[in-house]
Every structure is written in structure tokens, then in C-alpha cells.
Amino acid sequence: MGLKKLVQSLDRELENLRNEGRAKGKEFIITGIKKSTNGKGPRYFLKGFEGKEFVRMNSNSYLGMSLVEDIIKIEEETARKFGVGPGAVRFISGTFDPHRQLEKKLAEFHEREDAMIYSAAYVTVIGVLASLITKDTIVISDELNHNCIINAIRLSRPKEKHIFKHLDMNDLEEKIKISIGKGKRAIIVTDGIFSMRGDYAPLKEIQEIADKYDENFEENIVTIVDDSHGVGAFGKTGRGTEEYTGTKVDLLIGTLGKAFGVNGGYVVSDRTVTTYLRETAITYVYSNPITPAEAACALKVVEFLNSDEGRKRLDYLRNLTKRFKDGLIKLGYETIVSEHPIVPVLVRDTKRTKDLVEYLIENGVLATGLNYPVVPKGDETIRFQVNADHTPDDIDYVLDVLEKYKKERWE
Questions:
Q1: Annotated catalytic residue within 110, 146, 162, 258
Q2: Whether the model pTM is above 0.90
């Protein structure tokens, strides 16, 4: 017995990752946060960089709600009332009033009959797809879908799986045509916002194609969208890609762990669907929910999005995003034009991506380098994410750093 041979094998694999430039390396540890002052957004302190302040341009907290005092106060008050953890899975005794209040509010927010929350968006996708994919189901998936969708399909073992070219509606239609007669149910699944790029799925066209061929499947063509990066950050009122494209899909999955500033995931749909998922979804039945305090915070954020102040914050976020993207284009960087606050810089080279990330860190900017296999070879990218607690001065500072890099190191 022992791990000697296993350790040797894993060491070789880790060395290969490092040699190929694909290793993520040690995680940065945030040791403190300085709140916004003097026209600057929050500044972060990291272990190993004592005293150095960082602009955080790699956070999913698009609305900046995690540092809002009212939200922090709600979490404290709810934790004192209900405790710091749920203590059980939902069907045993882990459902608290804030959980159900949040579900009702999310259903109302998305104009659906019901909603159910999970411990994370990743496990929401796993639970939903594993429950709805049967041995007679055909799954059709965008080639750039998130890892959670890829793994959910693998776990579910559909009768057939087809991958259509990214955002290619002609290819999607072809994949549906070759699936006719091969299964009772078809599922089209896509990201709403694609997390590495910030571009979005054309939901109107997808739904129209699904409706066109729906009668060819005994149990429908079902459209499922994971809009974790869209909800709370995209669309005039933060309702995500559905709002932006003017189209509703059959099942919408969102997260509480990005724009909402806490943890958790959710799905909204018809009540029969959510009732079925409560009975069958493995990641719901056998996993604790988020804490009551997190649910109460998320409920407050939904209410905020429904307010005039929420719309102002979204307008501010859009303007900041445009300021950053316009600045990148002016400097000659390649990016993807979109209103979403994910702002990629397409470097298209693994070594240069690593070098640029290191340069940004040297200059007090946190951004994420994305290399293969997170992105396809040739699409190596620096992903920046604009948050509503950034300021124009923050954006201009990051652009200044990128301008210096362009002059000093870009050959």
C-alpha cells in the first residue's frame, strides 16, 4: 500500500502542464480589502505582496454587491436569526423561509411559474441535465459551452450528442435534422453569455429553430440556457440574455455567485418541471442549499435590480465597459465587441499571455490569463471583467498599464 507510484505519475503530469504553459500555479490569497476612496474603487491586498494595492479586474461580482454595506448588514442579521448554515439538505429540514422567498422572487423576476435554488450554478446544470436527459434523448450543444454543460452531458449519457459550431444557426439546424426519428426528446443547451469571450447566444433564432422542428419529437425540443454570466449584468434591467434578445427559453439557469454577490445557482421554468427536479435532481436532493443568510442577501439584490437605482447601476456598468473596450481598440488590442462586462484581450499566444499577466501583476492589476484547454489553441486570452464598483479612474489606470506594455514588450 502507499502512494509512491501514483505520486510519481501525478508529478510527471504536473510537470507536463508547467512545461506546456497550461498550469494555473499557486492561487493568490486575498488578505484584505480597502474600500473605495478618492475616486478609486476597492483595492485588494495579496499574500506575498505586502502593502501593494491591486485593482481587481477578474471578479465575477459584476454589480459590486458583495461590498455593499446594506447587503453585509442583511447577511449578519439573517445569520443571527437562522444560524450560519442550513444543517441539512432541503427535503429533510434544510429549507428556511429565505430560501423559499428567494425562489418566489426569482420566478417573478424571470416571469416563470417557479424557481428552485441549488448550492452552485455548476451543480444546477448537472442536476437539471442529468434529470431531463433520458436514454431516448438527443442533446445538441454549442461547441464553446461551459465545462459544467460538457460534464453534465457526459454524466447523463444521452442516446446521441451533437455539437454545433459556435453560434452557427445553420449548423444547429442541420444537427436537429439528422436527429429526427432517433429520439423521443431533444434538448438544445447553450450558454447565454460565453464566459471566456463575453459574446452571447442568439436566443431568438435558437428558439425559432426549435419551434420549427418541435413537432418531430414526441417529447418536444427543449431549450435550456445557462445564463450565469448574463443575469444581473446584461440587459436593461439585468434579466440577462433573454431580455437582451427578447426571447424566453424553456429552462433558464442562473447563478447567485456572480452579479448577485453571494453563492448558489438556480433554475426557473414551469412548476411541473421544478417539482420534478426537486424529486429527481441528484445535486439538489443530496446536497445542502446555500445558507439562509446568502438567500436573504440574494433576495435583496433581486429587489435592487427591480428599482431605479438598480437600473442606474446597470447603466453605469455598461458605460464603464464601453470606456474600457473603446480604450483597448484605440490601443490596438484585439477584443470582442459586446455590451457584456467580460472584456477579452485576444493574445493568441500562450507565452505572451503569461508574460502580460505577470506585467499586469507587477503594475497592480489582477486579470486572468486563459490558455488551452480552457480556450481553444490560438484563442489564448486575457479576460478582464468590469465591475460596477470600479471607477473611470480605475479603467483609465488599467488602460495606461496596457499602453505601456504595448510600447515596451509587444513585438
A1: 258
A2: yes
